[in-house]
Amino acid sequence: MKVLTIVGARPQFIKAAPVSKALREAGHKEILVHTGQHYDDGMSRVFFDEMKIPEPNVNLGVGSGSHGWQTGQMLMLLEKVMQQHQPDWVLVYGDTNSTLAGALAACKLPLPIAHVEAGLRSFNRGMPEEHNRVLTDHCASLLFCPTQTAVNNLEREGITRAVRLVGDTMFDAVLQFTEIANRRSEILDKLKVKSKGYLLATLHRPYNTDVPENLRNILSAFADMNDPIVFPVHPRSRKMIAELNKTIDMEGVGDNLIMIEPVGYLDMLMLEQHANLILTDSGGVQKEAYFFSVPCITLRPETEWVETLGAGWNVVVGADRAKILAARDREWPHGSPPRVFGDGRAAHHIVAGLAEGLS
Questions:
Q1: CATH topology of domain 186-328
Q2: 255-287 confidence digits (pLDDT tens)
């Protein structure tokens, strides 16, 4: 079996690592294509190194740009790669422009498409990611769902054929790499923070970074928390924070922020599991917080990962300063949350599903 895997952004590297390993262990051939959507070392190279993902067979080097330009460039280049390799499956992950470009290129040829993390819905059509995931699901020949909620979402849209509930490959990755992170990461010592003695924040979505009022509200809430907040700063966030400082008096805001460059996967796992609380607009970080039984405040008006809300481990507050502060002081659950993201063998279920789909 020959599988052409398309990745391009940090979350996809994490999701793909367990599947790439399972494909190799089963003796299948994988052609790994990196679109270059995330292209700097902090957002890309470090994940391949740490997670032992095979060197990409093809790197398209598309880089940043508007959504339409970026997707279009990827679509043209991916079509040529697919025509050259003629895979049995085109495997795409998640909801990025790389995902949609891969799905569109494959269905035009046509080649069978398998979508990992199918069925997620935020029901916010203002998000480019929502369009990407919906269109990809409706192009796909095989849909691998991480949760029962995702299966139900597809059923409501009339998609019931070739839908498989496999669990979440990010849960696989956490189980595989946490012990390695505990042995190798020195991030807590470098930052001089102690376990459960800090908060962790990530921020990258345009809803927050590109709307000055939202960004100001979030940063003001961070400042009012007083706790040390470790803040690996996405390049977009760093740029927009600098712009905000030019136009608004932000004196005193951020004195408790420990602003650092984006970190690798192992360091991020260490920071997540030892944080007292996580504040984020990232879907992946919400899940990782849940896996580690760390309370999470989601800085968005909605979440695709509604399972994290049900047990009280996650609360959605948007960019409302008062709601962020109220969530900080709420009564959080104790113990461990229910396991709703599979058995930790999603990658093996996916590989088995791909092989069965050819029979």
A1: Rossmann fold (3.40.50)
A2: 799 999 999 999 999 999 999 999 999 999 999
CA within 13 Å, CB half, 162: 19
How far is Cα 208 from Cα 227, in angstroms, rounded to an integer? 21
DSSP assignment of 129-188 equals HHHHHHHHHHH-SEEEESSHHHHHHHHHTT--TTEEE---HHHHHHHHHHHHHHHH--HH
Cis peptide bond upstream of 112, omega within 30: no
Task: Identify the H or E element spanning 5.
Answer: strand 2-7
Write out the two tokens for 121: 């819905």
Determine if the pTM surpasses 0.90. Answer: yes
Q: Boundaries of CATH 3.40.50.2000 in the chain?
A: 2-168+342-358, 186-328
DSSP string, 313-334: SEEE-TT-HHHHHHHHTSPPP-
Q: Is the pLDDT of residue 226 over 90?
A: no
HSE of 33, CA atoms in CB hemisphere, 13 A:
26
- Average pLDDT value for residue range 210-229: 92
40-52 burial string, b = 16+ CB within 10 Å, else e?
A: eebbbebbbebbe
Residue 200 · residue 272 · CB < 8 Å: yes
Helices (H) and strands (E) in the chain, counts: 16, 13
Domain covering 2-168+342-358, topology: Rossmann fold (3.40.50)
- Looking at residue 247, its pLDDT comes to 62
Catalytic residue chosen out of the listed positions 34, 38, 115, 204 = 204
Q: How far apart are the first and last CA of the chain?
A: 11
Q: Which residues pair with 7 in a beta bridge?
A: 34
Measured from the Cβ of residue 251, the count of other Cβ atoms closer than 10 Å reads 8
Q: Is 204 a catalytic residue?
A: yes
Q: Tell me what pLDDT residue 311 has.
A: 82
Q: Helix 212-225 vs helix 321-328: angle between axes, to the nearest 10 degrees?
A: 30
Length of the chain: 359
Q: In what order do the strands lie in the sheet with 229-232?
A: 257-260, 229-232, 199-202, 277-280, 296-298, 314-316
- Out of 38-52, 225-239, 283-297, pick the least confident: 38-52
